[in-house]
Amino acid sequence: MAREPGDQAPVWTCEQHGDVVPVGPAQAPTQKLLRQVALDSLVPVWIPHPMPDDWQVTGLQWAGSGGSVAVVVAVSGPHPMPEVGDEEPTVDLIFVAEQPGIGLGAHLAGLDGVDPGPLLAEKAAHDPAEIKLHADDHEVPLWSIPLVDGLAYVGEASGVWLWVLAWPSSAALALLNRFSLVDARNEDAEPDLPCGALTPRLR
């Protein structure tokens, strides 16, 4: 259980993990909230560009006080290649930018630990990057981490971790080849994004 700063400790603390960064609940996005998150963030606020047709931003979450050190952006839309009889044609993609040691990406991926560094170093030493995604005009190599019912990719972009989580996994490669990522903090980032209800993936 996390404890708020007080007389005994000037920072948030956890009995299991020691000093921790506070994480707020995920929120349904609005244009105003997205702009506010971008203004307050110390890390990139990644959004797809161009946004795929019929897709929406479906969740925002962030960690830190006095400037976000981790930001989550969820987007959802139709499966690009739905199978006959598919009961869940919706696809969810979650982008996480976080400073080292925060652990929000690992938490959303259902992994132990807070930092992908050791796992990523081992995979990178033996295997080439499985995909390369463009983020703010830079090519970012990413390595996969299997999830129970989805797929996660992780790498480094703009000096911090970049997580890309996808459900279902069958949609990941088809979608990630269709767009780049841009930082919503930049003035020329896409200003008016369609926003929808909060995705169950962040509830």
Average of per-residue pLDDT values: 85
How many distinct helices? 4
In terms of DSSP E residues, the strand content is: 25-35%
Shape: globular
Number of strands: 12
First and last CA, distance: 19 Å
Strand order of the largest sheet: 5-6-7-11-10-9-8
Helix content: 10-25%
Helix and strand content put the structural class at: alpha+beta
Instruction: Provide the low-confidence segments as ranges.
Output: 5-14
What sequence of helices (H) and strands (E) makes up the elements? EEEHEEEEHHEEEEHE
- Quaternary organization: single chain
**How can the largest sheet be summarized?**
7 strands, antiparallel
Rg (CA only): 17 Å
Number of domains: 1
What does this structure look like?
This protein is of the alpha+beta class and 203 residues long. It has one domain (13-197). Helices cover 15% and strands 34% of the residues. Strands 5-6-7-11-10-9-8 form a seven-stranded antiparallel beta sheet, sandwiched between helices. It has a three-stranded antiparallel beta sheet with strand order 1-2-3, with no helix packed on it. Strands 4-12 form a two-stranded antiparallel sheet. Strand 9 (138-146) and strand 10 (151-157) form a beta hairpin. It is globular. Pfam families: DUF6758. InterPro entries: DUF6758.
